[in-house]
Design brief:
- This protein is α/β, with parallel strands linked by helices and 643 residues long.
- 57% of the residues lie in helices and 10% in strands.
- Strands 1, 4, 5, 6, 7, 8 and 9 form a seven-stranded mixed sheet that branches.
- It is elongated, with a radius of gyration of 27 Å.
Length: 643
């Protein structure tokens, strides 16, 4: 890996606390709303497959009419308070130049407290841990959604039960195998399918409500309060099941950059929330009349002749829900790479027009292996429900904490207002986390273990990179005096342009030293290049390039990218023309330093972390592919660096 070519993350970017200036209207708004329904709400839309069943199964709640009304009321008001009030009303306003998600919010909170470095570092670590928990969700969501859908086969006939697991694995394998082709074509039908899904949810609910209208008492929040208060300590088990109805809430914020705030809000208010509410009410009404339907209350909503189409539609909805979190994992990984928390990986764009549609082979196959392991280990959606929720609720809590600093220090709202809102939502989050904690040994450990492992990897990489750059800076030569010493007219100069990527722009690139030592020549034009990734999603071309002349024949060029920008270095270098530096494409060579990390004790990392960093460093994707450098214009020169 060439440390000199790696980016430095920066917090010096323009503040981005303002809300989006332009909002879509008319047909554009309708199109984005339809697309948001297909991508954003697939996960939460498949929650009715298993939530009610788990409340009265794993939740240990007796199946009585009073408990049915209370449980459904608790589900509905959890959706209202957590999803509608917290996410749709409040957190969707915390955009980072139009982008949302854990890392975008972390960057926003970090800039809000930029004058307090210790607090900023703490929030950064908290945000990174929240990001690692997202990967746990990316593993469990495909597993539980597809299993929950395919288990409808058992309702059609118990004879099909042995085929549930192999069919689920086949569906999941196909889902991950097609990732390399991208989602552009499939994405066009996501919206209509999920719209049909939500309409079916609402329609089946209405059918049951009409037969048992007493369930409408669940709309009164007092029933939810009495239900939860009457559980005593057993309320934690009930909360651990109710939280299943909220999974996917983070997607509302994470996907804001793709669709905008207004389409997501409209989709939730006009279709998603009403359909979910009607379906949960319908399942409660069904169970009031037929308690034996508790084995699978969702599919029992359908007449026997409609089971097969319902299973097919549920499977399609589950696939779409899974696609959303898989794509989110790709985007999250790219952001982590460009913010300096993961080594470079192969990133392939799967669309010529949509920069956000990417494919990371290493992440795809790692997720497939983890999803297969989860399906085979747990074996059913009910067993997986024990693992589901822990990562989601902890992520919700971290989001609440980060949002406080955005609201208070970024938006400058009164501290008493920020504290009051944060305390209210933290209380809700804490109750949900406690409810999931009782499932810790029933599977809740799985996403925590996965998140903890990834946090160790990401923190090790970030710390190792910092030590590596410190080593290069401490042992390197100061750039300006070195350049001045090269102004001797006796030094042989050759035509063409030489570009030396370097992480620290104030030290002499190792590749430049090696070029002078071995080739004993200096190029006519020499560019010291630094790539900086800022803690904003994207930067315009007007802020992309900064050029400074250091001495005759030497320039320092800084290329600025956001953490969602594609780091196309040759394309960005073409913008130097406007600042008086012409870099001809066919007369330019890139000289890269490839550092070999040599571990040594006592230099800031424990032994096993040094070995882990060295292994990641060796296996990182090359600079050439990551920064899209022309293969036939690159010269790599090696050096050894000790950490």
């Amino acid at each position: 890996m060439t440390a000199a070519a790696l980016p430095r993350s920066s917090s010096a970017a323009t503040s981005a606390f303002a809300l989006p200036q332009g909002q879509p209207r008319g047909r554009a708004l309708a199109g984005l709303t339809l697309a948001a329904i297909g991508v954003v709400y697939g996960d939460i839309g498949t929650s009715p497959l298993y939530t009610v069943k788990e409340v009265f199964g794993a939740g240990g709640v007796p199946l009585t009419s009073a408990n049915l009304v209370g449980a459904v009321s608790a589900i509905l008001w959890a959706l209202m308070l957590v999803v509608t009030l917290k996410y749709v009303v409040l957190i969707l306003r915390a955009d980072n130049r139009g982008e949302g998600g854990g890392l975008a919010l972390t960057a926003l909170a970090g800039r809000a407290v930029a004058q307090r470095p210790a607090l900023r570092r703490g929030l950064l670590l908290l945000g990174v841990f929240g990001a690692t928990l997202f990967y746990g969700d990316s593993v469990i969501t495909p597993a539980i959604s597809v299993l929950g859908a395919v288990e409808g086969l058992e309702v059609a006939t118990p004879l099909l039960k042995p085929y549930v697991l192999p069919v689920s694995l086949a569906v999941l394998a196909a889902l991950f195998l097609v990732q390399r082709f991208g989602t552009q074509q499939v994405g066009r039908v996501f919206g209509p399918i999920i719209v049909v899904w939500f309409l079916v949810l609402g329609w089946t609910g209405v059918q049951q409500i009409a037969q048992q209208p007493e369930i409408l008492a669940a709309l009164d929040p007092r029933h939810a309060w009495h239900f939860l208060a009457g559980r005593g300590w057993h309320v934690l088990a009930a909360l651990g099941a109710i939280v299943l109805a909220l999974t996917g809430a983070e997607a509302l914020y994470a996907d804001m950059g793709h669709f905008g705030r207004k389409p997501i809000q409209l989709a939730w208010s006009l279709l998603v929330m009403p359909s979910l509410a009607l379906n949960y009410l319908g399942q409660g009404a069904l169970l009031m009349r037929q308690p034996e339907a508790i084995d699978n209350p969702f599919f029992r909503l359908f007449p026997a002749t409609w089971i097969a189409p319902a299973v097919l539609l549920a499977t399609l909805a589950a696939i779409i829900a899974s696609q959303a979190v898989i794509s989110g994992a790709f985007s999250m990984t790219k952001q982590a790479i460009q913010l300096g928390f993961l080594p470079r990986m192969v990133v392939r764009n799967t669309s010529a027009s949509e920069a956000g549609q990417i494919y990371l082979p290493a992440v795809n196959w790692a997720l497939l292996a983890a999803v297969f392991a989860a399906v085979l280990w747990f074996g059913s959606s009910s067993a997986l429900a024990g693992a589901y929720g822990m990562a989601v609720t902890l992520t919700m809590m971290i989001t609440t904490v980060l949002t406080y600093f955005v609201v208070c220090d970024g938006w400058r709202l009164p501290r008493w207002l920020a504290l009051g809102a944060t305390a209210f939502f933290l209380l809700l989050d804490a109750a949900l986390v406690a409810g999931c904690a009782v499932k810790l040994f029933d599977g809740g450990w799985f996403p925590l273990a996965l998140g903890g492992l990834l946090f160790v990897v990401m923190s090790t990489w970030a710390r190792g990179r910092a030590l590596l750059l410190d080593n290069i800076r401490d042992e390197g030569l100061a750039l300006q005096p070195f350049i001045e010493s090269l102004q001797d007219p006796g030094i042989t100069r050759v035509s063409r342009t030489a570009i030396y990527p370097v992480a620290n722009p104030d030290t002499v690139p190792q590749a430049l030293l090696h070029n002078l030592k071995h080739n004993q020549v200096l190029h006519e034009r020499n560019v010291i290049l630094t790539v900086v990734f800022h803690e904003v999603p994207a930067l315009p071309d007007s802020e992309r390039v900064h050029v400074a002349e250091l001495a005759p024949g030497f320039w320092r060029v800084t290329l600025n990218f956001g953490f969602l920008d594609a780091p196309d270095v040759p394309k960005a270098l073409a913008l130097c023309d406007a600042q008086g530096l012409r870099i001809p494409v066919f007369e330019t060579s890139f000289f890269l330093s490839r550092e070999t990390v040599v571990t040594a004790p006592g230099l800031g990392l424990r032994g096993w972390r040094r070995r882990l960093f060295a292994a990641m460093n060796r296996n990182a994707t090359g600079v050439v592919a990551f920064f899209r450098l022309p293969d036939n214009a690159v010269v790599e020169l090696g050096t050894r660096v000790q950490i």
